[in-house]
């Protein structure tokens, strides 16, 4: 059939399958999610009228400044992400294209993923409480700590929860605040032994922190290079590996004495 067509006609006919393949690639769903800076929340304050941290069984102190946990906002696990969205996200500094399985556990539907993230948050809150009380040498059976933060899942707020508990119970250890009156943000998982773990999405979280007034950002040391890649002007990075190290860095920053690590 093609032998009876003119050259331009033949090329046009041959191009049709190519156009179809390209169009399919552009509009077909891909195994990615597109993320952007999400909400931040002050763990020393209230969320929807309810204190994020409530402590009973031990005296607490009034705090100044803010400790803001940070999040990323990603396309829904069942959203259709096209090639066009992926390409657009690669070129933008306020978005990131990430493998879907790096953001959401594979194999589950939306409800299962929500339950998984809620379970991760509960485990993170328990670990954060244990880490903070252990750091302060307080028996967990003597103190009840309740953590409330709506519409946030996953374990990445663990470090900030621990710091909030420490600040409310002990501050800098000598009557001052861990924050020194600043707005300090950060991210990082934490285990009951106080070790801080990596979380992902830190370049977007630094943007969220800067947007909401933070001047200091606590980042898991292993993710320093990621945090530096799109670091907003005026936001200081402090790498951390443990809760104790994070507290020491904030106290040194507050008092203007001692070494404050940097990326």
Question: SSE layout and pairings?
Answer:
Layout: H1 7-27, E1 32-42, E2 46-47, E3 50-51, E4 53-56, E5 66-74, H2 83-91, E6 96-99, H3 100-103, H4 110-135, E7 144-147, H5 158-169, E8 183-186, E9 189-190, E10 196-197, H6 202-211, E11 216-220, H7 224-229, E12 236-240, H8 243-255
Parallel strand pairs: 5-8, 8-11, 11-12
Antiparallel strand pairs: 1-5, 1-6, 2-3, 4-7, 9-10
Helix pairs in contact: 4-5
Low-pLDDT stretches are 1-5, 7-27
Please give the CATH architecture: 2-Layer Sandwich
Count of DSSP strands:
12
Percent of residues in β-strands: 15-25%
Given this structure, which CATH class is correct? Alpha Beta
Rounded mean pLDDT is: 86
Principal-axis shape: globular
Please give the count of helices.
8
Largest sheet: 6 strands, mixed
Terminal CA distance reads 66 Å
Structural class: alpha/beta
Radius of gyration: 23 Å
What is the CATH topology? Ribosomal Protein S5, domain 2
Strand order of the largest sheet: 6-1-5-8-11-12
Q: Count up the domains.
A: 1
Estimated helix fraction: 25-40%
Protein name: Lon proteolytic domain-containing protein
GO molecular function, one term: ATP-dependent peptidase activity
GO biological process, one term: proteolysis
Domain Lon proteolytic: 153-243
């Amino acid at each position: 059939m093609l032998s009876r067509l003119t050259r331009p006609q033949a090329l046009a006919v041959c191009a049709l399958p190519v156009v179809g393949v390209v169009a399919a690639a552009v509009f077909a769903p891909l195994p990615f999610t597109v993320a952007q800076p999400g909400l931040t929340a002050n763990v020393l304050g209230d969320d929807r009228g309810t204190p994020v941290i409530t402590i009973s069984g031990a005296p607490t102190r009034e705090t100044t400044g803010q400790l803001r946990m940070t999040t990323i906002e990603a396309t829904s696990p069942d959203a259709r992400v096209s090639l066009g969205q992926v390409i657009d996200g690669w070129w933008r500094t306020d978005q990131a294209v990430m493998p879907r399985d790096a953001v959401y556990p594979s194999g589950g539907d939306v409800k299962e993923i929500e339950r998984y993230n809620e379970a991760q948050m509960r485990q993170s809150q328990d670990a954060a409480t244990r880490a903070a009380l252990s750091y302060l040498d307080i028996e967990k059976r003597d103190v009840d700590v309740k953590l409330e933060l709506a519409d946030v899942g996953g374990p990445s707020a663990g470090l900030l929860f621990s710091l909030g508990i420490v600040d409310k119970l002990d501050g800098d250890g000598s009557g001052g605040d861990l924050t020194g009156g600043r707005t300090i943000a950060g991210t990082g998982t934490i285990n009951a032994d106080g070790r801080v773990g990596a979380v992902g999405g830190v370049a977007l979280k630094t943007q969220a922190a800067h947007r909401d007034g933070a001047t200091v950002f606590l980042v898991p040391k292993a993710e320093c290079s990621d945090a530096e890649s799109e670091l907003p002007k005026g936001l200081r990075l402090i790498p951390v590996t443990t809760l104790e190290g994070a507290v020491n860095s904030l106290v040194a920053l507050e008092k203007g004495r001692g070494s404050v690590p940097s990326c």
